[in-house]
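Fill in residues.
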């Protein structure tokens, strides 16, 4: 219900704002909102050649392409007896272009990932590997997820999802996470209403605990940062605090026993593992850090794939008992992954189209500017307020916030506080609304209860933490 109302609010308010801007003269055309592409120039006026300034007229008529650029962002183009004036660029794809890109650039690759990893998951299930993993981790998971029975398959799926997220393997994390939601849905007595276990899983997933932020390091290296990996420790600290906050907020709501010995021990082991890895990474030189971060995640993913195939070969008798083969089981799992991708497509499309209109309408920019203005008047430094657009857009769109991140590093420098803080914002949280749409949509849950509110609160905690951590480190 909350998600539905939010979707309606941003959609309707964006349309109203666009129509008002058109008739008030603030917008010359709204065609770009429907058909435009990201970074396309925006048409702001059209005049006859005699109506433009004399110096512009002279320059256009003399130019080979009859085009003139002023101050790098205003372009005059003379064609068909009129001069079209373009200023600024489009923030994201238009509504219709978003429909196409959602299918071609997002859903089709996602379906391919789902097919492959769901095929592997089917092998883990039939071979008994997922059951063994669930059996090992049950003492901890039943404390965090009291409604999940011991040795339930969802435990192994959630473990693989958390591990993939932790290592920055987004392509693997989503299939494992969707499989976990499906498994938890089997335990859910109210099929259209999110269960406690599903909410806890979603909030922990969305908190974005990541050890190897390979994509962020890559962006910073491309922006000529002196040490692209210098934001790793702040990213880990921020995302870890976000994860703990998500666990505590949901745990208090669900009355989880925080005094459990196994829970405390597991948390201490996790902290020790993170600290140990950080100490090792910090002991490396720049080349060593780059080598380690670029290979660890890929090596672990290859290991998971190899283990699944080898274990399935060793346990081939179980496949025979199930009247199937390893290959046929993989195909069955892949087919299930494709069906899941088809199911979530409408949910993702609805959310991304609304976000596209929200950004291109100019409403998001006005809101973000007002928030930056309020923060600046509260004494917050300009270096911090310049990074806030990344934090504000991150819950809505990973691609959009990534664009702001790259722009902030190009504008202010990758080694500036703004550039580093933007990197931490991008790394330390998930695209909340996308995650809600994909994961709850995959199991047809309509009432997300307090999941969305909790995830947004965790996003705010991560933003505040990132500001303190970045100010402390840099």
């Amino acid at each position: 219900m909350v998600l539905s109302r939010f979707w309606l609010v941003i959609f309707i308010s964006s349309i109203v704002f666009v129509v008002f801007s058109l008739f008030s003269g603030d917008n010359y055309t709204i065609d770009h909102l429907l058909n435009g592409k990201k970074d396309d120039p925006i048409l702001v006026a059209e005049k006859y050649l005699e109506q433009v300034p004399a110096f512009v007229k002279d320059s256009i008529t003399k130019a080979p392409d009859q085009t003139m650029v002023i101050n790098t962002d205003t372009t005059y183009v003379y064609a068909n007896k009129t001069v079209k004036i373009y200023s600024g660029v489009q923030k994201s794809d238009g509504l219709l272009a978003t429909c196409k890109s959602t299918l071609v650039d997002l859903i089709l690759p996602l379906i391919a990932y789902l097919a492959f990893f769901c095929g592997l998951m089917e092998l883990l299930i039939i071979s008994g590997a997922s059951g063994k993993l669930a059996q090992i981790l049950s003492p901890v998971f039943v404390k965090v997820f009291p409604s999940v029975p011991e040795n339930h398959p969802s435990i192994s799926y959630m473990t693989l999802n958390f591990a993939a997220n932790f290592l920055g393997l987004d392509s693997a994390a989503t299939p494992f996470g969707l499989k976990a939601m499906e498994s938890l849905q089997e335990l859910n007595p109210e099929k259209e209403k999110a269960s406690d276990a599903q909410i806890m899983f979603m909030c922990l997933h969305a908190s974005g605990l990541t050890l190897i932020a390979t994509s962020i390091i890559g962006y910073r290296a491309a922006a000529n940062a002196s040490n692209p990996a210098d934001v790793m420790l702040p990213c880990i600290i921020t995302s870890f605090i976000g994860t703990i906050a998500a666990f505590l907020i949901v745990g208090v709501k669900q009355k989880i026993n925080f005094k459990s010995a196994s829970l405390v021990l597991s948390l201490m082991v996790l902290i020790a593992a993170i600290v140990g890895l950080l100490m090792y990474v910090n002991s490396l030189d720049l080349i060593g850090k780059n080598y380690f971060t670029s290979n660890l995640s890929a090596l672990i993913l290859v290991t998971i794939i190899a283990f699944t195939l080898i274990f399935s070969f060793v346990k081939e008798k179980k496949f025979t008992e199930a009247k199937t083969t390893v290959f046929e089981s993989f195909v069955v799992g892949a087919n299930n992954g494709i069906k899941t991708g088809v199911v979530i497509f409408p949910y993702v499309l609805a959310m991304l189209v609304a976000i596209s209109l929200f950004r291109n309408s100019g409403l998001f920019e006005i809101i973000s500017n007002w928030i930056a203005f309020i923060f600046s008047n509260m004494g917050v430094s300009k270096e911090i307020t310049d990074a806030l657009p990344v934090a504000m857009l991150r819950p809505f769109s990973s691609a959009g916030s990534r664009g702001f991140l790259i722009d902030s590093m190009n504008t202010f420098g990758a080694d500036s506080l703004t550039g580093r803080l933007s990197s931490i914002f991008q790394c330390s949280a998930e695209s909340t609304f996308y995650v809600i749409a994909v994961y709850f949509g995959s199991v047809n849950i309509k009432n997300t209860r307090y999941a969305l509110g909790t995830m947004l609160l965790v996003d705010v905690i991560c933003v505040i933490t990132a500001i303190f951590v970045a100010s402390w480190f840099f």
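The first strand starts at residue 41 and ends at 48.
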